[in-house]
Amino acid sequence: xxxxxxxxxxxxxxxxxxxxxxxxxxxxxxxxxxxxxxxxxxxxxxxxxxxxxxxxxxxxxxxxxxxxxxxxxxxxxxxxxxxxxxxxxxxxxxxxxxxxxxxxxxxxxxxxxxxxxxxxxxxxxxxxxxxxxxxxxxxxxxxxxxxxxxxxxxxxxxxxxxxxxxxxxxxxxxxxxxxxxxxxxxxxxxxxxxxxxxxxxxxxxxxxxxxxxxxxxxxxxxxxxxxxxxxxxxxxxxxxxxxxxxxxxxxxxxxxxxxxxxxxxxxxxxxxxxxxxxxxxxxxxxxxx
Length: 289
Description:
Blueprint: E1 7-12, H1 39-48, E2 51-57, H2 65-75, E3 79-84, H3 93-102, E4 109-114, H4 128-139, E5 143-146, H5 153-162, E6 168-170, H6 186-194, E7 199-203, H7 218-236, E8 241-243, H8 256-266, H9 272-286
Parallel strand pairs: 1-2, 2-3, 3-4, 4-5, 5-6, 6-7, 7-8
Helix pairs in contact: 5-6, 6-7, 7-8
């Protein structure tokens, strides 16, 4: 594996179950995640993979989590930015974003995310109250991370087209159906989003969309992901793609180093400058690290 000594990990999480439950960790398949994962746990693995800066991303729709993450960013040099959560539909969302930036570590707030994948309305992003909140995110100079399922991608396209001043960051390629091997209709909607200049995408989260019921080598899982990574590289290009580990969720399938190994292999066809964009440049620019 090529170690990218300047790598930015644009997507990871931490949680402490003694502080609050992670209510999305349900069922035997997610049981290995039902323990604490701390920044200290992450640091050794990240450094070994050549990662020198990370982006810490929200896990639950709880207002208290974002200030906690900002404090962690203030205390740990590894964390260069935070993507937090706030209720986009609240009337005073602009004031709330300003308040968050005044907290300890508030200078590290770089974006906002909501668990859109859990919303029953596939057009949740297009609601007037949500659109007003997204406008406040843009006005605050922040980006908006999209965690969505494939059937929600058309609404992402319309939202991004309606708000050209806001950068939309697609997490995990929009969670394509890698386990089934199907490309359509995901690829068509994915390319439509990529056609908009105010969108970027994280090369992240793919390993846990493979078939986790089967034990396979990292090389085999990488081959399974390759058509989706190639689609992303073709649609967005290296200058709008960024590496993310999705640690510790990735540990359901492999180690932190295993994810880095797979990402390295998925980008072997790129030039050195192009790989530098995927592994550092895009995230550094988009999240102003």
